[in-house]
Records
---
Amino acid sequence: MQNDISLSFTATLHLDQHPVCILSEHTTGPMTIIHPYTLQLVELAKALGILIGPDHAWQEDRAVGLIDFHLASEPVATTFYFRHVQGLYRLYVRNGEHHGQGIYRPGNLPQAQAVVGQDPSLWAVLRAGEGGTPCTLAELDANSQIHLEKSSSGSTLAMLGIGIGIGGFLQATKTDPAATLTLNIIEREVDWLG
């Protein structure tokens, strides 16, 4: 019989072969940008996204005032712990500066935060290209194509551009196409304390 531990796992995520990471772990300077739709300032320091380098590739974005940050290191995928709870998953960070933090979704922007009081957001793992059917670890291969859907709202993670378009951040939305993520499973049947 399967239980929550047997359906929990660690994994990294990639988008178009680029590692999904917590953006501030690979940048210096402010990670505040103008949101491409709302034109409001958005703080992306603890947000999830992709950064395509090298740093000089971002110079045009800096020159026109779209960004202020610099790439400090080659982006490495964040390792996530997918903790199974009643057919859904809570995500926790298992490496880097934000190790031990959960992925919460304030204002539709998933980001790493300390786990205090409330558990991290619940996400459904959906198979990409198969009608978006929910699945658990038992149905996933080592490198499955997935979408992540916020269980309470039905909004999926989509990639929105940073600057002119050589990077982006993940945002939960119902209007943009879901980002197809490659789930690279590292270890299966991982206990919460593992």
Note: The mean pLDDT is 90.
---
Amino acid sequence: MNVMSMILAFALTCTLGLGGTSLTVTGEPVAPVAVPPAKAAAEPAVTYEGPGFDTPEAALTCYLEGLKNLDFEQMLHAFAWETQARHYDVEVLHKRLRVYSPSVKPRMPSFNDFMLSATLHELRSSQVDLIYQSLESYILGEDYHQGRVITFKEDADADAYLQKFDNGRLENLRSMSNIRFLSPDTVTSNKFSMEKNQENFIKQSAYYGADEIVNIVALADVGSDMLYCCPTAARYGDRWYLVSVSSFTSSLLGVSINYQAFMCGQGL
């Protein structure tokens, strides 16, 4: 039984207190200019995160409504960016991994405002890339390349392949409805709450530097298809945000990196 079949089975058999939620859903030389002494860092002109949410479910609903509305910025509005960057602890991360790897994002300490900004943008870049991959796999459906390189012998081959994206599938997301939330234990047959897994979850989440970390599972209907996503949400102070589209729960389910942001289909 594959991942989506497992989730569908649990969704059909479990009774949850949370219930269902519906979307509403050539010039002169330039004279040198003296550089003034550095001043204290001012507040950034652009901020990327919103005010946060009262619950993790509200943060995930914002993300899914953005997907439904085909509004990428709304999806990103659900995340902690500046807050996460300020609290992100790479020392904890590297001590857990026992390696320093170029594949880890972010991986350098934020020892000044410049590096803090770099961390912020690396966090955004890594999440945007995961969402981008999930969008690609969803749009292409059965034509998805599964990470393989596609070669083109002729210009016409490139044209033909790129035409695959213009299939109207993305617009189907506008029909998304009936968001409902499940517990990680519901979709993992209680593996999530096993003592060893809870220990690993706590260790793997510590580098966020948050006051509280949860995994939150959501299902939604997209026409006759089912959409699944399970991000990691964090509470900083009294506000909740998403911090990653991936999660310990998705890892337990064996969800591929290409589907971390969401996956959607029949019998997947």
Note: Confidence is low (pLDDT under 50) at residues 12-36, 38-43.
---
Amino acid sequence: MITIKMKGPKNSKVWLMGIVAVLIILMIVCIGTFSLFDDEVKELVHLDKGDRNCQFKIYYIPSNATVQSYIQIRKLCPDKEIETIASYERYQQLVHYQMMGDSVKMIIKDTISYKHRQDTVTVLLK
């Protein structure tokens, strides 16, 4: 059996300084990787309109320091810029959607406000 003998207060100071150094490094890593706001734009639905040239997608854009979270419908065409069809601020959840010809009917929900609300909207996809 191997025994380690600690000799005097010097050895205990070295151990204490090592532990403090590890804790400081751990704290710096935690602070450096901390995110106060959810910053990832999430694609909720890819709408299939049958149009081969352009795509329509519904996104959830999270809030940050200057804007509220919202649901957004975007039109993506191969040789054009991304076009925003509609935005619904203060909504965080897409409950249901249904394609109806050239439009989409959505039920969207606000889950953060004091009074939760749910609305039905119809958007023409042009």
Note: The two ends are 80 Å apart (CA to CA).
---
Amino acid sequence: MKKYLLIPLLLLSSLYAYPRCAPELKSALDTIYHFPEGKKLISDVEAEGPISIHWARFHSKSPAMWVGDDRAIVINANVPRPHGEVIRSIFFELHNAIAEKRFERLDWLAENRQISKNDYVESVERIEHENACAVAALVEKAISQGYFPPNARWHIAHDFETHYMIQRENGHSGNIASLYDSLSRKYYGYGR
């Protein structure tokens, strides 16, 4: 009788083995899934709950974003990119998904005004920089092993200060600062 109970549990655990994905993005996700480290990453993210990957138009120049509340990776439909860059964007946002608890902690601090705007922005940028460095290294490995195309390569600043300066100049840090404003007003009844 016990072996009959195990089968439904195995079937249930396999439900979260692969994210729901827009058909146009399935090829990029498949590419990540075939890379052993990518498959493990997807599995780790899905262990926290199912995710989806889809297109949307948003005003930011960012190629993609992780939306933790929806457990979704959203690819910016306004920014056309080669297949390799879409792969890299999804791969990066999977890393951000793994860091969700760290982002949530910073959001809580902002909501309760226990962190300054500058410290919040820098902390978020530090997490994303750590993720970007990890992704750049893994992308190089995947390219060298033939899993990812060469145009997935990511040339990033490996030192944080240079990265942070670039993020401030391109508006990314400003978007994070706006999020801080929204979060800190929310707690005091002024926001969303």
Note: The helical segments are 2-14, 26-34, 36-47, 83-98, 100-111, 117-144, 160-169, 172-187.
